[in-house]
Amino acid sequence: MQQIINGISLGSLYALVAIGYTMVYGILRLINFAHGDLLMFAAYAAIYGMTLFALPWTLSFPLAVLLTGVMGILLDRAAYKPLRDAPRISLLISAIGASFLLENLALVMLGGVPKGFPRPEVFAKVIEVLGVRVQVLTIYTPLVTLVLLLGLLFIIYRTKVGMAMRAASRDFETTRLMGINLDRIIGITFLLGSMLAAAGGIMWAMKYPQVNPFMGVFPGLKAFIAAVLGGIGNILGAVVGGFLLGLGEILIVALVPGLAQYRDALAFFVLILVLLFRPTGLMGEPIIDKS
Amino acid sequence: MDKRKRNLILNGLAVAALFGVLLAFDQFGTNYQVRILNNMAIFITLAVSYNLVNGICGILHLGPNAFITVGAYTSALLTLSPAEKQMTFIIEPLIWPLSVMQAPFVVSLLAGGILATIFAFLISFPVFRVRGDYLAIVTLGFGEVVRVLCNAFQSVTNGPLGLKGLHPHTNLWWSWGIAVLTIVLVTKLVNSSFGRAMKAIREDETAARAMGIDPFKQLLLAFLISAFFSGVAGGLLAHLITTISPTLFTFFLTFNLLMMIVVGGLGSTTGAVLGAALFAWGGEALRIVESPIDLGFFTIPGIPGMRMVVFSLLLMIVIIFARRGLMGRNELSWDGLMGKLKVMAR
């Protein structure tokens, strides 16, 4: 029981990050390698907000989320926008470069020593649910994810911007012909995706209160795998994939403790199996090649 | 004079010149210079073989670190003597056949290359079922899996402790010999009908298939050859550093290789050579930004890690503003050089 709750909590974090991947992939057909590093950026922003500027967490967290969103837009403008018409391989290399740049900039400017995350009291409490003692945070994480997800679905399915985003992920050229400012839509996609990653990053940092410049790499990779598992380009798929991966990781280690060492390899194993047998993922539509 | 004959002579002269330079450094160079030259040769081997897959076939493969790891461990385990292995494996003893085996350096390098090739063959089936970004992620995944396995299989790899006290077999002759061999073989391959088929796949896979090219066969060929040389270079690297552990072979290594071939020009063998040489030399030259700079009245403190910032910025600048890199897809060749000379002489 305890493990299932942990799994759901971890899964919802993967889901939050995976949504960002899937949104960007849906529109640009690009794996945003730097997405995981935005998560790291958010964690640092929240820390500095609380320690350096002595903001309460209620102010510092939303600010960090917002800053990360802006960072996402900047990332797109600097690293991806000049390459819109370039071959995909160039875009991917640029993404890898951006990811390394962010990591190493953080390393140079903030130092490589892991920082502790000052966890607000509200989240550190331990309560008893259904007979097991869990941290409040573990319960809050899926709830926050749910709320954010509903908000996102509202934006995508009930607003004009969302409609434009869905159109752009179908067909770039036609959307442009319809008089939609694609750069603005792409910018908004990055903004939303990065903000979700930031929310995930802050909760990740509270769960594992060790913030270092490379903390985003593994959550990023695994969230990407979750997105592929669910069917990349599909937001609900990313959520389902995230939960499945999170639950799977926790449960496998809980049931077969001998496999704990292989936990990080498991995700890739899942990825390879998915690509072998169902390349479009669990909920994906056939991949349309937009070249 | 016949062009082929002339090129043969010029190539011979170039190799002889390289031999002279190496001899000079071998005799009079400092340890530091020899070390950089060794690094350069190993990077050249790695970059040229990596470029065969990424540049010539046009698929983004992000797992050369897996092949290098396999090669390095295989060759290291073969050259250590049974007694040394017993000393190194303190937590869990090495499994049986490996614990008593010992082979000369050449054999160990070959074995490293062959095992890396076998590994590449095994993973090729899932890898080549997909293309593009998916292929990049799957190969990246295999690179990570190999690293995790290296940490976990203590009775083969000694886990996170790694292997220590390897004999420094790698010298200028070995490293540059293999680099030259790699360049010659890869160039021959690229200029053969196989190479043309690979380039056709890069340009348009569907069209290539319509011309009767089997993409899987061609890509597999490139992949296996690339893995073989990466494995051999891994063995060289292991015997140059003399200590290997899983942390040496992370995605970081792949990133560096990618940077070399992108800066050199994706798809150009001479570009890869130039990129690798620049990286080996530039990596050392850039140490300046990490060490304190004394300006007389005050000192700028050195910032460790600054080199990587510079490198990743460089990669992005090249890919955004000068996507073709130094060489584009062109090669430096004697024909081209002679042509330039004739123009200048006129």
Word description of this protein:
The complex is a heterodimer of chains A (291) and B (346). Chain A contains twelve helices and four strands; from the N terminus they run ααααβαββααααβααα. In chain A, the strands form two sheets. A two-stranded antiparallel sheet of chain A has the order 1-4. Chain A has a two-stranded antiparallel ribbon with strand order 2-3. The mean pLDDT of chain A is 85. In chain A, helix 2 (35-51) packs parallel to helix 4, helix 6 (136-158) crosses helix 7 (160-170) and helix 6 (136-158) packs antiparallel against helix 9. With 291 residues, chain A is mostly helical. In chain A, strand 2 and strand 3 form a beta hairpin. Chain A has a single domain (2-277), classed as ABC transporter involved in vitamin B12 uptake, BtuC (Orthogonal Bundle). Chain B is globular, with a radius of gyration of 21 Å. Chain B is built from 16 helices and two strands. Helices cover 72% and strands 1% of the residues of chain B. Chain B has a two-stranded antiparallel ribbon. Chain B has helices spanning 3-28, 31-56, 64-79, 82-88, 96-100, 105-127, 132-152, 154-157, 172-190, 193-203, 205-210, 215-241, 251-264, 269-285, 306-321, 334-345; strands at 293-294, 299-300. The longest helix of chain B is centred in the middle third of the chain and has 27 residues, at 215-241.
